[in-house]
Amino acid sequence: MSVTPTSPTSPTTPTSPTTPAASTAPTASGAPSPADAMTPIQSVRVPRSAIFVDAMVIAKRNLIRIARTPQLLVFATIQPVMFVLLFRYVFGGSINVPGISYVDYLIPGIIVQTVVFGATSTAVGLSQDMSNGIIDRFRSLPMSRSAVLAGRTIADLVRNVFVVLLMVVVGTAVGFRFHNGFIPAVVAIFVALLLGYCLSWVFALIGLSVPDPESAQLAGFLPIFPLVFASSVFTSVKSMPGWLQAFAKVQPITRAANAVRALTEGGPIATDLTWTILWSLAILAVFAPLAVRRYRKG
Amino acid sequence: MIEVEGVSKSFGPTKALVDVDMSVPIGTIQGLLGPNGAGKTTLVRILATLLAPDAGRARIAGIDVRQDPNTVRSLIGLAGQYAAVDETLTGRENLVMVGRLYRLASPLAKTRAEEALERLGLVEAADRPVKTYSGGMRRRLDLGASLVGRPRVLILDEPTTGLDPRTRLDMWAFIRDLVAQGTTVLLTTQYLEEADQLADHIVVIDRGKVIAAGTSDELKSRLGSDLIEVEVAESDLDRTTAVLSDVGCGKATIDEVRARITIPVCDPVPDLMAALRVLDKAGITPKDLGLRRPSLDDVFLALTGRTTGDEDSDAPPTTGRRSRQRAGTPA
Ligand SMILES: Nc1ncnc2c1ncn2[C@@H]1O[C@H](COP(=O)(O)OP(=O)(O)O)[C@@H](O)[C@H]1O
Ligand SMILES: [Mg+2]
After folding, report:
1. What is the mean pLDDT of residues B161-182?
2. In chain A, what residues touch B84 (CB-CB under 8 Å)?
């Protein structure tokens, strides 16, 4: 960038023989010293395009971290795999969902559950960055203010892609099949990832607001727990008591699970798909600005 | 180059900074000296645009840190009190990343990273993850990260705290070198010796207030003079104090633990001879006796009535951990 005064050819302000004299001149008056005047400082704006470049730099950094700590990825997948095994083989027999085999009912739900749990890692990751001071470094750089969060959520999205694909493989191994064609199946995965990405911004806000990564872990799971379990992820909401049903029917995770299920297995798609997208965008529209504001505030 | 006018900052009931003024000319090293909790990091964070002051103004190269923080960020390099580098990335990857975030094109960021690695002696370790680095190496890398943007103003928060003496000397040499090339440096320290060695001008702060400012020599001259230091056997301490009471021109300081008496003098040589005479007459043979220039420790003692260690035990910081607000596990 030509406006950046830290251009490669001028490492630092040139020291002239007059500098010592300038040093002793009072500067409290606010008048620029002669040395200052020699190299006028141009105001530096963060160009629009910067957010993208900066976000990619940060995303790359986070992806390297994920790749170098594969054990974290393993832990992230063990949990949904356990859920698959538990519900497929332990509880599944006693859960009755009409018109569909339980494994075909379960796996779309698990896919949604996986992306939602995956989104909580945004909170933990950001909180770790706060604790070890690297966020302070980022904040002191002339970079885009939103890029740290954008880069983090993008990296977590990429991570989610991996985990979801793995869950499809695991699901297939325990008997799940796509019954509605290739394109809807791809759309289903996209929809789940969209919800996960938008939720990442909620967790970004949480991660920036809690004092340490342990709290981030807890604070991340608290809102997620009721949302995932009072939903159609594992069973039909019709079996729930009325007051719970009222909540369970409309909340985003039920909508997403239903949409993914309809897309992969057949059935009416439009309403749930629309609601899932609306929910996702609404969450993004509310929480992304809040998270960025929180980040700016420090 | 750095101007601070009437800056105050409180955290709830804690007054971290109270009406602080400071002015750092271009191409000089400003020492900000104070014990733990004095407010050094708070001022650093304000100058680095990480924290807004409650009152007052701070400018870097004439640019207000609140009105145009982004320009300020492009002018400064910050190396915080705790190394802010990514543990999983290699040294080189860390530096390239920071270079990219300074808006350098990728090849230039790589060149700058390479330069910084060479200057800081990290070439061999460059491709190892930072988690394998020693504390000193992390500090150097952190300093390197603050240099890839070629800042005009370098802000170093306790750059040598927790380093071994040799690494500290290297760091000093490095900082001097930077200033010789025209960089302006603000350096905070708890070490009087460090400020004495490096800084052209020193501001002493204590509990958020500036309690003294000037060159190292000016601060020392506040004590007016050189000092005679006498160390005796413990049993001789009281007697020595008594016989020396007429020597010198100021109040003697008595360190009972080390059985040492320090006396300010106005005419060093005659006073020293006088001291020798009275000691000889009283038949006291000191374990050690000498004339010395006052250290900044003496200055601090004279200014606050406390030594710098009084505030708290001041445990050396564990590496990579930030104490402010949080004590989370490092990534
Ligand atoms: N974020 C914060 N919240 C509350 N108190 C703080 C915060 N940061 C610093 N302080 C307090 O402000 C005072 C000055 O702290 P600091 O600037 O870190 O001192 P130093 O760097 O000189 O050791 C201390 O009493 C410290 O506890
Ligand atoms: Mg500090």
Report:
1. 87
2. 132-134, 136-137
